[in-house]
Write a structure and sequence with these properties.
mainly alpha; Serine Threonine Protein Phosphatase 5, Tetratricopeptide repeat; 2 domains; two-stranded antiparallel ribbon; two-stranded antiparallel sheet; cell outer membrane; membrane; SusD-like_N
Length: about 500
């Protein structure tokens, strides 16, 4: 965590409704000090800044979740050297994409709200206890989600639960072990559920701000990582049975309805989406990254997942284009038309209901062979929605069953920042029981010339985590480099 001056910038923007102009109120001198907290609007402005910072991590979410896996690779266009090196497992501490400062800024804004929002109840009569608790729920969600990204990528990281208020404060903190980070994440998310909203006044708030369902969705994911499968199943059921969400029909009037998840955004399937809207001057770079600059494309392995399923509406013309392997779900206005989007304002989807079905299936697999049929039923629900006529049957071993889940996730979530985490999660549980699975999956898309080198790196589990950036090490003398990178510059 770099000693950065944390402030609310006048240039911050957020998806806003006409009656709720987030971030219009700015602290005097643009500084969030302990004298700032006087009314509800100021609390909401800081909370909104946390969402904005999370939105600014979008390409890191993509790179961290995809470029070490086998779903995406570098494209044929304007490729950044640092992204190429991550994709080739040539990762050094000076790589710009291993910076974690924006995630810690999300955490810091959340810490500010958690500390100061309760005091505002006494100062602003319009800010009642229930509204305050709802804001705290969102802050705990943001903090938990940010730490979840950090712990999956760096393993041991500094655990900060107090706000960093000004640049004069010495703020050097050593790393905490990953089990403590996961414990804090669970405390934050489990505590956030009680006062979280089940419904919201607008669609964008229901999908773009924390709700009970986005918190439960994140908990499902976290419980899979901490190997608490009963809890993962219970949290999955809470989302599935919420009455607020559901799988979209695959085809409607011969149109690919699944594609609406991306072309429109904020569908009934979406649980938590980073919001963009051209009409509010909120755009992103997805069209540039996947189209005009061709920074990313799907791998031949991804294409092969659809090879036996010509009827799968998620394949060619939807998730990707044949030939140039472009990720069409981020580029097209409709599936299988070749007609591009007018604007680059697609939402970035972090959780949607198909994710819950397949995470629950994974938890069922880990419960033992007696639950394999239930896992297969969930997989087949996702396949049926994709118009695949042939159901899968239960396999005989745990790893084969996990393979069924992972292959379906590979088809469903192309380019959605999940592929590497799926591989690492399967491999690392039960003290790296399936490390060979990770090596095999990564090498599926490795160039033949570099495969032996990559394999030798992957044998060391410390290489599965990113290095701490050299700038962070310089600013925080209590930090120690992650073990694999000790002697790398």
């Amino acid at each position: 965590m770099r000693k950065t001056y944390i402030c609310l910038l006048a240039a911050l923007t957020f998806v806003i409704s006409s009656c709720n102009d987030w971030l219009e109120l700015q602290p005097e001198n643009n500084q969030v000090s302990d004298e700032y907290w006087t009314n509800k609007e100021e609390v909401e402005a800081v909370l909104g800044a946390g969402y904005v910072r999370l939105r600014e991590t979008m390409e890191q979410q993509l790179v961290w979740g995809e470029m070490r896996g086998n779903g995406l690779t570098t494209g044929s266009g304007a490729i950044l050297a640092d992204i190429f090196r991550i994709n080739q497992w040539d990762i050094l501490p000076g790589n710009d994409f291993v910076k974690w400062d924006k995630f810690y800024q999300v955490i810091n804004y959340a810490n500010m709200v958690i500390k100061y929002a309760p005091e505002v109840v006494e100062r602003d009569p319009s800010f009642n206890e229930n509204v305050m608790q709802s804001y705290l729920s969102e802050a705990y969600f943001l903090r938990g989600l940010a730490y979840f990204y950090l712990v999956r990528n760096f393993r041991d990281v500094p655990l900060i639960t107090e706000p960093y208020m000004d640049d004069q404060t010495a703020f050097e903190v050593a790393k905490s072990p990953s089990n403590e980070i996961f414990q804090q994440i669970k405390m934050d998310l489990e505590g956030a559920v009680e006062y979280a909203k089940e419904v919201a006044p607008t669609v964008w708030e229901a999908k773009g701000r924390a709700t009970k369902w986005s918190i439960y969705a994140t908990l499902v994911d976290v419980y899979l990582w901490t190997e608490e499968y009963d809890k993962a199943i219970a949290a999955s059921d809470a989302v599935i049975n919420s009455g607020q969400l559901g799988l979209l029909e695959g085809m409607v009037n011969n149109n690919n309805n699944w594609y609406r998840i991306f072309s429109e955004g904020n569908t009934n399937e979406g649980i938590f989406e980073l919001q963009f809207d051209f009409d509010k001057s909120q755009t992103n770079n997805l069209v540039s990254w996947f189209g005009s600059n061709q920074r990313y494309s799907v791998t031949e392995h991804t294409v092969s997942l659809f090879a036996d399923y010509d009827e799968d509406i998620r394949g060619e013309g939807s998730s990707y284009l044949d030939g140039d392997f472009s990720v069409w779900k981020y580029l097209g206005s409709e599936a299988e038309t070749g007609i591009p989007r007018t604007y680059s304002d697609q939402n970035w989807i972090i959780y949607r209901i198909a994710d819950i079905y397949l995470m629950k299936a994974e938890a069922m697999v880990m419960k033992g062979s007696g639950s394999y049929d239930q896992a297969v039923e969930l997989i087949n629900q996702v396949r049926e929605r994709a118009q695949i006529s042939a159901p899968v049957s239960a396999a005989s071993t745990e790893l084969e069953m996990l393979g069924l889940v992972m292959e379906e996730r590979g088809r469903e979530f192309v380019g959605e920042g999940k592929n590497w985490y799926d591989i690492l999660r399967v491999a690392s549980r039960n003290d790296y029981q399936y490390k060979d699975y990770l090596i095999t999956q990564v090498l599926l898309t490795a160039p033949a010339s570099s495969a032996p080198i990559i394999r030798s790196k992957l044998l060391d589990v410390d290489s599965h985590y990113l290095p701490i950036h050299i700038g962070e090490l310089s600013a925080n003398r209590l930090l120690e480099q992650n073990p694999y990178y000790d002697n790398l510059n």
